[in-house]
Amino acid sequence: MRGISTAVMLKQFCKKLLFLGVPQDKANEIGIFPPYSTSKFLARNVLELVACVMPKEDWAILSAQPSQQDPEVLKALFARVEHNAMKEMLAFEARAEDNPNDNKSGGRKLEPDVTGLGKRVNVYKKWIKDRLLLDTKDASMIPLQARSAVLVQPPVGTPPGNHSVARMFAARKKKEATLQAQEDTSKAASELENSPEVTADIREEHCL
Known about the structure:
Layout: H1 6-15, H2 40-53, H3 56-62, H4 71-92, H5 114-132, H6 147-151, H7 165-193, H8 196-207
């Protein structure tokens, strides 16, 4: 499966009528055949990414009866979907499109082949899992969603009113530090007031 581009995979799946009548939100349930069956989860990851970036009009063309499909329209569609899938993956990874070889990519250029793209989708899903503290063993079962949407969601278990567990503990620590400072100040004032020097000064004032 290595080296097979997303566009080629879509063309082969379409040729075998695997998209026929399949709803867009059920893309990851499409049957997988050789050579993709050796790494089904990677192919499914790419299919999910494809469904995520495709407008409804394009999906309607892809899942239509062969008699209703124009080969030239399909060819352009496959190329367009591959480009959009790559662009969306860059957005998921928070990488600049004009600098695809930054540190976040580990120095590897993002290629459109199914193996590489499928692995990147899996890494992104694991990031969602860790970010939101999801109690899910299989990260591949986590639905794809925009990075911006993930960032605004509080992790699982975050008390209401707190955007993150870390912020909650930081606020609690700050409150405890303030209370401790107040207590220390009060204690120091009390000790000063009851010190022999202060007591002697007070007696002297009364005597005067």
